[in-house]
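Deliverable D5.2: sample structural annotation.
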Amino acid sequence: MAKQLLAAAAGLAASLQLLTYASPLMGQSNDQRAVDLLDVVATARGLGTTPVKDGGGAPPVADADGDGVANDGDSCPDTAEGEAVDSEGCSVTQREAVVRQVYEDEVNPLILRADGGCTNSGCHGNSSAPGGLELYGAGTPDSTQLNYDSMIRYINNNSADRLTTKISGGLGHGGGTRYPTGSTELATISDWAISVEALPQ
């Protein structure tokens, strides 16, 4: 049977002027050469490759969470089943979780810091805070969440650029310069604020 397949495949390849492709197949078993030649012909005709039990043809694309984005390009490899994702394989829920975590780990400590934070100036620690940006010190219960919600509202109602410009002392900021332009602290806050703007509304 293998010899018959080989002969048929070779005949088809020759008719498509692809017989020269068979030369690299020399040395293989008749069975494998027959399958490989059939693959050549099928590909030339736009039919794809034939299934091969022992690993022939293109390997399947690995997509562990089944979101349609291959593992090697998936920034969020554990997307819940059925959630829509962006081109990087992340759902809105996952993006929001990352933004929240970065705020807690990197931004809120800067907001609370005594030497440059925004809760020790007397401006933003009350209900009549400028721009509605109420911020709370670490002694306030759930201050991290309160500050996060307030910062998100401010960015959504204004812009990331306005927030960072104010923090760097621009636009007549009553609290002066909290973190200067070019500082790593301001860059951290700016990067985070821009990521907030990128979230779907």
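Annotation notes: The chain has two domains: 2-44, 92-197. Residues 2-44 form one domain.
The annotation will be released with the project's public dataset once the embargo ends.
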